Amino acid sequence: MRLNEIKDNDSAKQNKKRVGRGIGSGKGKTAGKGHKGQKARAGVAIKGFEGGQMPLHRRLPKHGFNNIFRKEYTTVGIDVIQKAIDSGKIDPNKKIDVEVLKLNGVIKKVRDGLKLLGNGSIKSKVDIEVAALTTSAKEAIEKVDGNVSILVRKVKEKKESVSASS
């Protein structure tokens, strides 16, 4: 292959259509836009318009709900913690919390706290601090005489309104 022999495929580039250039071109007079009307004009956007009828996106019911107070926990199984202890990333004699797990590369992102799952099994006695945990995880840790402490989230107290009785 030589540089002077390089060329595009035959169908790679199409010629530009010249519209409105006489009746013989096949795209003369109305330039392929039909006759008059809104769509024949320039700069018109009528994507959702259905001729005055209620548009489809307004006829269909609303669906779904996003709870703005939902907690998104970073989940980790007890088997992952045991694997980290076995590999020497985590010291089982010290308290294990979110910062320790993140610093040692066990978890990547801390969202609204850590949730401990009961996947697999644990052999080491650990002292762990989490935001939430499953009952199977709690039972597995207590089985090996470990300790689990749950961080309590601060909940705003509602102000009681005092109503005047007559």
Describe the global form.
elongated
What is the mean pLDDT?
Answer: 87
Show unreliable segments. none
Rounded to an integer in angstroms, the radius of gyration calculated over CA atoms is: 34 Å
Number of DSSP helices? 4
Strand order within the widest sheet? 1-3-5
Largest sheet: 3 strands, parallel
Question: What is the terminal-to-terminal distance?
Answer: 101 Å
| Strand-pairing-aware structural class | alpha/beta
How would you portray this structure in words?
The model has no long low-confidence stretch (mean pLDDT 87). The N and C termini lie far apart (101 Å). The chain is built from 4 helices and 6 strands, in the order H-E-H-E-H-E-E-E-H-E. The protein is elongated and about 90 Å long. The protein has 166 residues and is of the alpha/beta class. The chain has a domain of 77 residues: Ribosomal Protein L15, Chain: K, domain 2, CATH 3.100.10. 17% of the residues lie in helices and 12% in strands. Strands 1-3-5 form a 3-stranded parallel beta sheet.
Summarize the structure.
It is built from 4 helices and 6 strands; from the N terminus they run H-E-H-E-H-E-E-E-H-E.
Write out key terms for the chains shown.
4 helices, 3-stranded parallel β-sheet, Ribosomal Protein L15, Chain: K, domain 2, elongated, single chain, alpha/beta, 6 strands, 166 residues
Chain-wise SSE layout:
Blueprint: H1 56-59, E1 74-77, H2 78-86, E2 95-96, H3 98-103, E3 114-117, E4 127-130, E5 132-133, H4 135-143, E6 147-150
Parallel strand pairs: 1-3, 2-4, 3-5, 4-6
